[in-house]
Amino acid sequence: SNRTFTMVKPDATGKGYTGAILDQMIKGGFAIKAMKWTRLTPEQAGEFYAIHKERPFYGELVEFMSSGPIVAAILEKENAVADFRKLIGATNPAQAEEGTIRKNFASSVGENAVHGSDSDENAIIEGSFFFSGLERF
Ligand code: ATP
């Protein structure tokens, strides 16, 4: 598919990195198809990350993701999901390649600046969590 879903996470919005991160996405060839600045309640963050419910870091993840504003966006590019994960780099910024968004802006494995969908199916599910059919033009 040619679409993926991303969030700029609360660590990055809080440090004022939003503009630079979006700039790197656009320069990386991704077109913004829908975007919103918002904040998740702990309930909403828990629902978004329900797939990780059994992971030991789930509570920490939900608390972090509801701790401040996030920017949610649907992005378009050929081979979007795989190319975007390449652009953001490894989950743990210490292992992320030089020049990736997480290498540039993330501080730890938990507070890692951005989210990127891991499959076409999840890109649709996650995009639909934030945007109505009307908004996903
Ligand atoms: P994302 O789905 O956000 O793009 P990912 O696919 O790289 O991240 P996952 O393993 O799916 O990573 O974990 C989802 C999110 O949970 C991570 O992005 C990170 O914010 C958090 N996380 C992952 N591992 C840990 C950990 N060991 N401790 C704390 N938080 C973690």
TrEMBL record:
Class of this enzyme: transferase
Q: Which GO terms describe its biological process?
A: CTP biosynthetic process; GTP biosynthetic process; UTP biosynthetic process
- Organism of origin: Limnovirga soli
Q: Which domain of life is it from?
A: Bacteria
> Which reaction is recorded as catalysed by this protein?
a 2'-deoxyribonucleoside 5'-diphosphate + ATP = a 2'-deoxyribonucleoside 5'-triphosphate + ADP; a ribonucleoside 5'-diphosphate + ATP = a ribonucleoside 5'-triphosphate + ADP
Give GO terms: molecular function aspect only.
ATP binding; metal ion binding; nucleoside diphosphate kinase activity
Task: List the InterPro entries.
Answer: NDK-like_dom, NDK-like_dom_sf, Nucleoside_diP_kinase
UniProt keywords (A-Z) are: ATP-binding, Cytoplasm, Kinase, Magnesium, Metal-binding, Nucleotide metabolism, Nucleotide-binding, Phosphoprotein, Transferase
On subunit structure and binding partners, the annotation says: Homotetramer.
Q: Where is the Nucleoside diphosphate kinase-like domain?
A: 1-135
Please provide one cellular component term from the Gene Ontology annotations of this protein.
cytoplasm
Q: Where in the cell is it found?
A: Cytoplasm
Its family?
Belongs to the NDK family.
- Which cofactors does this gene product need? Mg(2+)
Q: What is its EC number?
A: 2.7.4.6
CDD domains given in the database record? NDPk_I (cd04413)
Give the residues the record marks as binding ATP: 9, 57, 85, 91, 102, 112
State the protein's purpose: Major role in the synthesis of nucleoside triphosphates other than ATP. The ATP gamma phosphate is transferred to the NDP beta phosphate via a ping-pong mechanism, using a phosphorylated active-site intermediate.
**What is the name listed in the Swiss-Prot or TrEMBL entry for this protein?**
Nucleoside diphosphate kinase
Task: Identify one Pfam family in the record.
Answer: NDK
Name of the gene: ndk
Q: Where is the active site?
A: 115
